[in-house]
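Weekly modeling sync, notes
Attendees: AB, CL, MP (scribe)

Item 1: holo prediction request
CL wants a bound-state model with BV8 before deciding which constructs to order. AB pointed out that an apo prediction alone won't tell us much about the pocket. Agreed to run with the ligand included and paste results into these notes for async review.

Input as submitted:
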Amino acid sequence: MTEPASTIVILTGAGISKESGLDTFRDNDGIWAKVRIEDVATPEAYIRNPTRVQEFYNARRAGLKEPNVVPNPAHDALARLEKDWPGEVLLVTQNIDDLHERAGSHNLIHMHGELLKVRCEYCDALMQWEDDLSTTTPCPHCGRKGGLRPHVVWFGEMPLGMDKIYESLDTCRLFVSIGTSGNVYPAAGFVQHVRYRGLAHSVELNLEPSQGATLFSEAIYGPATEIVPAFVERILKDGIPAP
Ligand code: BV8
């Protein structure tokens, strides 16, 4: 077993929030089966038709505020792991929902941004935002209209927190990927980055094999609300397997 103060890095995707009632992207009933990435999740789409993009995020923001959308036992288990593991647990999520925070995770990086935050392209103010946004909403900080956009990383934009993420990937002894199809880079490349170092055990927890399934040392398949709590229980009891 490795020394107890080892760092654990966890990557989550839309699959961890599915059982909380939020759609994934690439499942048959997923978001990208209903709208095209090119129409709602690129800077070009926003320039071409800002109202269409704002409406797409307004609908998802309203959906996230639904009373039945709450953290599930998988989110809760990751918050417990952060609390009870003696070393650092860094949670990197591709998700823009706030379910990890609401479950109690603190050491958290939203590499693709946050649905409940908006930023002003005129004054760079970043603020919590839970209501609809339109192309004429005035910025509460600078007062100018038309500059407020979702604080979300679109395709072709640089993900957030990358320096800290790679720093932790370089030192971690356990890398766990949960609920992601492994389609989107750079997140999908994290397991390869960990493998090159050869110092960490890597585990995929998913409903089905992802694009990068063969790159992991270990894989456990099933619904996140079942396999994630059991996995956290095992790590807290037995520690991290040698790489
Ligand atoms: C970048 C925010 C560089 C928006 C998202 C060609 C042209 C242009 C770009 C590229 C290109 N080739 C590659 C790229 C890079 C591109 C990319 O990877 N494209 C892909 C499509 C090929 N990446 C980027 O553009 C990134 N930026 O590279 O910048 C750069 C360099 C210098 C300077 C500037 C820039 C930015 C990517 C971020 C895009 N934004 N999200 C929003 O949310 O609206 S990404 C989008 O996919 C989602 O948001 C999500 O975050 C991400 C990954 O999806 P998943 O989370 O994996 O969800 P998915 O549905 O796919 O899978 C769910 C999984 O869960 C499934 O496996 C399923 O089986 C499982 N599951 C389901 N139910 C359960 C379950 N598991 C457990 N339990 C269950 N119950």
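Recorded for review: Residues 50-64 form the longest helix (15 residues).
Action items: CL to compare against the apo run; MP to circulate these notes.
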